[in-house]
Amino acid sequence: MPDTQPNNPLHGLTLETILNRLVDHYGWEELGREIDIRCFTHDPSISSSLKFLRRTPWARAKVEALYVATCSPL
Description:
This protein is mainly α. The chain is built from four helices and no strands. It is globular and about 40 Å long.
């Protein structure tokens, strides 16, 4: 099966992978400053953040946009 989204930098990445890479890159404190959502600023964890991001499309879009801007390979 050919790659159907060759220009999509998020293709093949799970939300968990994206979040882990952002946390590794920024740390929770800086990530909370970049994207001001409570799951990043108050007692953050991967599991609670994933729950919130999966239910909240606008927040997920911000996380994905930050990932594309800072962590995706060119």
